[in-house]
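Item description
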Amino acid sequence: MNDQQAATKSARAAGSQTLARGLTALGVVADAPQGLTVQEVAERLGVHRTIVSRILTTLADFHLVTRAGDGRYRAGAGTVVLARGYAAGLRDAVLPVLRRAAEELGATVALIAEEGDEAVAVAVVEPQSVDYHLAYRVGSRNPLGVGAAGLALASLHPPFPGEAAELAAIREQGYAGTYGQVEPGAHGVAVPLRLPDPATRLCINLITARAALARDAVPRMLAAAEEIRLLADGVA
């Protein structure tokens, strides 16, 4: 191996190490909803804080992380763009599952994605077998942590001090149920989706004005979520 080949190999190794550190830093920050300081990230990566500071600055330049006023880094809006291609493929794959659930339950069923601090409807299926049902449009947004879908998505984050008390119950029982939090008189049932990529946070959500339907829909919604999970293994 000549000097030029050796230099090229060394440069590639250094580049791979930098990329690996950057991806690892992004992962640990994305898994910490309460945010992490430069020192905390450095400790988790086992490297000097000066190196981590440069990595986080670069990630922030591409909006993959964001530095809040408290000095802690959190996942940035750019992570949504990275997940969008995967989510789009999954959305197309799960539409038949949503249609079957909507028809069997006689209620609107939707696929909801987390984008930043909001829950966004990316696919909405209305039942054709009933004359009356509640509905909303694709692109509808609600704050994360509000309503069944917002709570279901929030439950996909690791537990953290000070989080809403109901999130622990949602993680244990596998679904969120609410009444009137987003729309007066509306019941919501949402099931968080456990996907191969934990950074892609999605849930399925049912909305109805009928309390009995919302209560009885839970087993069917859980079954739909499990079917989607199996589909996601093939999409990933």
Summary: The helical segments are 3-30, 38-45, 49-61, 78-105, 147-154, 166-173, 211-216, 218-235. The CA atoms of residues 173 and 191 lie 10 Å apart. The beta strands are 65-67, 73-75, 108-115, 118-125, 141-143, 176-179, 187-192, 202-208.
